[in-house]
Amino acid sequence: MEKLFDRLKKDVRFQHGLTSCINCGTCTAICPAAAIYDYDPREIADQLQVDDETILEKLLKGDDIWYCGQCMSCKTRCPRDNAPGLLILALRNLSIETGYYMHSPRGRQMYALKKLIGETILAKGYCVHADGVDTTLFPELGPIWDWVKKNSEEVYNCFGNSYNRRGSGVLRKLSDETMHELNEIFAVTGTTERFNQFEEDALEQAEKTGIDFDESILNEYFRKTYENPDYDDKSQ
Amino acid sequence: MKKMDFDCVIVGAGPAGLKASSMLDAEGFTVCLLEKEKIPGGKLNTWYELFPHHESAQAIREQMLAATASQIFTSVTIKSISRTDSGFCVRDRNEDEYCAPALLIATGFKPFDACQKEEYGYGIYENFITSVDLEQMFREQRLANAAGEVPRKIAFIHCVGSRDIKVGSEFCSANCCITGIKQAIELKKKIPHLNIYCLYMDLRLGGRFFEDCYKTSQVKHKVQFIRGRLSETNENPDQTIILRYEDTLAGKPAKLTVDMVVLLVGMHPDPSILNLLPDIDEQVGSDGFFGDGMIDQEGQSMDDGLFFAGACTGPKSIIQSTDEASTVAFRVIQYLKEKLHTETEDQHGKLWIRHSG
Amino acid sequence: MRTPIMTTKASNIPFLWREYQKEIADDHYYYVRSCIRQNFFPGAEQILITLLKKDLEIDLCVDSEHTTCTGIAYHVDLVKLETTMTVNARQFALMTEAGYSNFLVSCVTSFGLYNEVLEIWEKHPEIEEQVRQYLLKATGRTFNKPKNLVHTSDIIYKYKDLLADKIRYKLINQDTGEPLRVIDHIGCHYAKIFPEKGVGGAEYPSVLSGTVQAFGGRSIDYPERRMCCGFGFRQYFLKSSRGYSLSTAYKKFKAMEPYKPDLIVANCPGCNYFFDRWQYVISELKGETFGEEGNGIPVLSAEELAALCLGYDPWEIGLHMHQTAVEPLLIKMGVRFDPDEKYRGFSGEQLKKPKIPELLKAY
Asked: How would you list the strands of the sheet with C60-62, edge to edge?
């Protein structure tokens, strides 16, 4: 069985994210997540300096690695050229690959993201598409968005006249060939498999915790992971 | 346009240059010091009190000048340095030439230009000074913020321009921590109610009595030490400064508002001499200073007559500079004696034979 | 590639990041759209195309077959690094096929991502080779790497003086004659990852403030200037952590409030979205608004700003799709606009107006 650390070291983001940490705290000082959560990017970098499988496994199974907001302010300032933000990507990636992400309620939210964003990419070719977002899921979109949704043809066609149709204006419909290529890339590079993994892991968790699950985007399990991943925490 | 001959030309009349010249004098050699500033003394002209015992920089400077009998040329701008059969010729802007078989580079260091650390706000926000600026304020007996008021809260920031890959200097300057503590003590003596915070990564206090200073600053003067490197500064509408750091001992990000910030700037190599003597480029270490830092100096060639001493070979205190200058002066003497087989009368009246070089 | 080192060994001139300029190609760009900007501020993208082609006479390729760069998916850990790199490679392949070597990016997350991918390939040629294999296998395509890769705010910055000569409306308050007070917000992924990829580096980037100044406005510094807008990628998309996004943005609004800004300009579409929408949420949740008299602070992108100053119709620019009303700014600048045309649809039909928020003023 390949050691976790050996797998982590293969990730270029780990290689570029950690040279050596002197625990100065410059990263944590300006980390937006550290200001709000009980999160400390310095501790992430410091813990990874020793090749300790136990520590790494704990990180991969824990909540700590899921707080980072990926702003990369840490990378700009580090006097030793480390980048906790990059380490986080490498850790999350390994957490998913090993399946350990399912141990953390925040990690389990990958399913919700897969439904919201992953499926949009493979269906539309964009990470986000107007047809899939509304004020039910995202109330902050505001009354203006309700208006946009109600009048989407009239609104979007003003800008390039290709709304959900072939053309080169905004929110154009991509050709079948392009969508095919995109799906092929996902398959060849392993993300399709990862998406399937998210579904399988989610199904297992839903069954374990007695939540309804089906292939629709807004199934009950989706709602739980989207709104309250700690739903199964008996202490709450 | 004059041509002058000496046994040794020393570039830089700071502590190292002055010490070396006084030793060479004592051996009966002719030495000149070339100083780019208007007055000799190097950084002794910048400091007010010296660590660790708060000795007067002015007094030490005078003492060092009195100890040397060498000719000191000031306001010298060196235009070129060339190697000759018999040694070196240094030509200045007025076309005067200073020639000698031995050349000692004692050009010292330059303080890190804190403008380069943009996230610290020096030169951008009003209430920022460096440790060098603060010494000037001590000399002028002028301790006030930009608005002319006596500050109530001052922060010292350690490691500005040192141990920082982002400014291209990864070495530790070794003397800033003690400088900060010394200055904090001086400030507290003058303004007893001042709150002082020192933001540090590590406290590097290796010199003799440095740790005592640290303890004094804590016990007698209640200087506060916070283990966290300054990440960013911001300015409030009233020009007070917000410092963002992590209190690493508590494991929490924090903000601190102060009236003034003193940046403890590192000791950086002064590269200007390299333009004049390009072939000494290989003598420059990876940190930008001369020399390689090895203990084993056996293999080091002395045949070419070029020597380095003082802060130009690495960050050091005044004592370390003068100590190194003594060692190097000894090597210069050996070199001159070998090369010149010179008859000179040393301080003990002993005769040495000079063959023309 | 090492960032420019601060001083060379033999140089006496210290390097100051805020004076740093990067290379921005003159012309012949392949343009890639942004997921967020297309959805929420489509006018900005369309007007940019018009502006570049008409006002700057730039040859711009607006191709129909490019996809997302997968930046959002990448930063929420949905897609593997290999997938992101191969999708990016496909974008480069389209650029190559269209005969271009300069790449113009609408989104700042994309900009950071493309640069990161190119940097990885630079340092690890074997990875680049593997990506080429993946792309070939999945699509049959090959690609050249772009010679110059810039963000849309870079182009506007490059031509700011030329545009400044042409603008009809300056960033000046018509009543007082004073320059408008502008908060310029730079997206994190513009310069924080690679300072050498940003005009002016990471601490004092000038890509927006330079343009603002050229157009007569004044950029304001404030204590939270460099703080992230709070997007946080997964933290925003997931309802359970959305408070992180809101709280971070709220901190910024509170910090800028005493400086009374007239306008926020941001170059990242995500930042544009958050500054625009969180003001609405804050007004509903906390009863606070940050503009004058119950208005919010209008938020514009670099494209929208340039087009507005040049005299394009605000509704053509798509400003009617902002939640935080831009009318206070239009009035300050003396921009002529027709309120009755605001909600006219593509067909010419006069659409029913959107609902007005409880507190934040809308028109």
From this structure: C60-62, C29-32, C102-105, C148-151
Q: At what angle do helices B318-340 and B15-26 cross, to 10 degrees?
A: 40
- Shortest CA distance to C97 belongs to which of C128, C143, C65? C143
B161: amino acid identity, one letter: G
Give the total number of structural domains in chain C: 2
Is there a contact between B253 and A35 if contact means CB atoms under 8 Å apart? Answer: yes
User: Residue B169 forms beta bridges with which residues?
Assistant: B164
Q: Which tokens hold the place of C310?
A: 């040049």
Q: Residue B184 carries which DSSP code?
A: H
* Min Cα separation B307/chain A (Å): 33
State the smallest CA–CA distance between residue B357 and chain A in angstroms: 51
Which pLDDT value is given to residue C9? 47
CA atoms within 13 A on the CB side of B123: 9
Look at the block and give the residue holding tokens 């080779």.
Answer: C129
Q: Same structural domain for residues C65 and C173?
A: no
Q: Note whether A133 and A124 are within 8 A (CB).
A: no
Rounded to 5°, the CA angle C178-C184-C187 comes to 170
- Tell me which chain A residues have a C-beta less than 8 angstroms from the C-beta of B234: none
The ipTM is: 0.96
Q: What sign does the dihedral A182-A183-A184-A189 (CA atoms) show? A: positive
**C-alpha–C-alpha distance, residues B181 and B206, integer Å:** 13
- Give yes or no for a contact between A172 and C42, defined as CB atoms under 8 angstroms apart: no
CB pairs under 8 A between A and C: 258
Beta bridge partners of B9: B32, B103
* CB < 8 Å from C in window 203-232 of A: 225-229
Alpha carbon of C195 to those of A68, C3, C115: distances in Å?
A: 21, 8, 11
Domain interval for residue C269: 160-341
Looking at chain C, the number of H-run helices and the number of E-run strands are 15, 8
Model confidence over C76-99: pLDDT tens digits? 999 999 999 999 999 999 999 999
Q: In 3-state terms, what secondary structure has residue A78?
A: coil
Cβ of B51: how many Cβ atoms within 10 Å? 24
Cβ A91 vs Cβ A39: under 8 Å: no
pLDDT digits (tens, 9 = 90+) for C187-196: 999 999 999 9
Give the pLDDT band of residue B347 (cuts 50, 70, 90).
Answer: low
Closest by Cα among C337, B312, C67, B94 to A123: C67
Structure tokens at B261: 């910030």
Contact C246, C287 (CB under 8 A): no
Strands C218-219 and C181-185: parallel
* Closest residue on chain C to B117 (Cα): C16
Element (H, E) at C281: helix C269-286
**Pairing assessment for the beta strands C102-105 and C29-32 based on DSSP bridges:** parallel
Domains of chain A, first to last: 4-101 (1.10.1060.10), 107-230 (no CATH)
Pick the CATH number of B3-108+270-340 from 3.30.70.3550, 3.50.50.60, 3.10.129.10, 3.40.630.30: 3.50.50.60
Helix or strand holding residue C253 (H, E): helix C242-256
From first to last of the 363 residues of chain C, give the pLDDT tens digit: 334 455 544 456 778 999 999 999 999 999 999 999 999 999 999 999 999 999 999 999 999 999 999 999 999 999 999 999 999 999 999 999 999 999 999 999 999 999 999 999 999 999 999 999 999 999 999 999 999 999 999 999 999 999 999 999 999 999 999 999 999 999 999 999 999 999 999 999 999 999 999 999 999 999 999 999 999 999 999 999 999 999 999 999 999 999 999 999 999 999 999 999 999 999 999 999 999 999 999 999 999 999 999 999 999 999 999 999 999 999 999 999 999 999 999 999 999 999 999 999 999
Q: Which residues contact A166 (CB under 8 A, 6 or more apart)?
A: A172, A173, A175, C64
